[in-house]
Amino acid sequence: MQRKFLSLLGLPFLLFACGGNNATRADAMATPEEQMTTEEDVVIQGDGDWTDLLAGGTLAAWHKYGEDAPGTAWKVDGDGVLYLDTSNKGEHGVEGGGDLITNDSYDDYELELEWKIGECGNSGLVYNIVESADNAYPWQTGPEMQILDNSCHPDAKITTHRAGDLYDMITGEPENVKPAGEWNSIRLVVKDGYVEQWQNGAKVVSYTAEGEPWEAMIADSKFKDMPDFGKSTSGKIGLQDHGDPVWFRNIRIRELDAK
After folding, report:
1. C-alpha distances in angstroms, 127 versus 58, 73, 150, 152?
2. How far apart are CA 71 and CA 123, in angstroms?
3. What's the pLDDT at 44?
4. Which of 83, 182, 194, 257 could form a disulfide with 247 if both were Cys (CB 3.0 to 4.6 A apart)?
5. What is the pLDDT of the chain when averaged over all its residues?
6. Do residues 174 and 202 touch, judged by C-beta distance below 8 A?
7. Cα 27 to Cα 18: distance, rounded to the nearest angstrom
8. How far apart are CA 75 and CA 238, in angstroms?
9. pLDDT, tens digit, for every residue of 62-119?
10. What does the alpha-carbon distance between residue 68 and residue 182 come to, in Å, rounded to a whole number?
11. How far is it, in rounded angstroms, from Cα 130 to Cα 69?
12. Are 28 and 12 a contacting pair, CB within 8 Å?
């Protein structure tokens, strides 16, 4: 999370807020049992061509937030794995790091990737980012799917700050993250304001990012004083530099048909 504090298919999706650690949850129409969906039960799925966001083993599709090119600490190895080289840390984080975001914005899409984190590490997948000079960080506009070593990072003590959670807003269930150093998979679906976060083959979070319930969730979160947070249902994709070693591979995206 932030370093400073740091319809669909005929069915409406509603949300309600719960107390305690800002553990806002989906309502009875998206119970934990319903969220424990396997890959065989996928309903929202594109049928178009995938775009490889690490095509040719390069970062041609990416840049550092607020700049024209990627930070030099973000590298792609010979196996096509993107990683953050944390060997050169300065007073304010990794030298040559910074949050990495896509050059393009996406509206109604399906994203897949794999990630692994270093011991006790922290990172995140931020999406629907609106890049502008008004906001210094991607998470000031885009929601985040947490990437974390749940075994020892302090954030794991907070039930909406664990791997797979919609950071500081919705607890992901089941809690199925693998240990540090092992690969995890993410599938992210964004369609007409409705969002699904999948981790390791299970749908762990689903919500609708608009309307009064969404506004209430924001008001009960760390993002309540960020006027542009969660306002867009489309945007750029971001990978967070939290100063810890993190790796990504097989990052691909495809558009879904608009309603």
Report:
1. 21, 21, 22, 26
2. 16
3. 80
4. 83
5. 87
6. yes
7. 10
8. 15
9. 999 999 999 999 999 999 999 999 999 877 779 999 999 999 999 999 999 999 999 9
10. 32
11. 17
12. no
With pLDDT > 70 as the criterion, what percentage of the chain qualifies?
83
What is the pLDDT at residue 90? 76
pLDDT-derived band at 3 (thresholds 50, 70, 90) equals very low
φ, ψ for residue 41 (rounded to 5)?
-100, 10
* Rounded Cα distance, 44 and 47, in Å: 10
Whether residue 10 lies inside any domain: the answer is no
What is the span of the domain harbouring residue 110? 38-255
Closest by CA position to 241, among listed 79, 77, 92, 38: 92
Supply the CATH number for residue 248's domain. 2.60.120.560
Contact 194, 256 (CB under 8 A): no
The tens digit of pLDDT for each residue in 119-155 reads 999 999 999 999 999 999 999 999 999 999 999 999 9
In a domain, 17, yes or no: no
Q: What values do phi and psi take at 194, rounded to 5?
A: -90, 140
Give domain status of residue 30, yes or no. Answer: no
184 belongs to a structural domain? yes
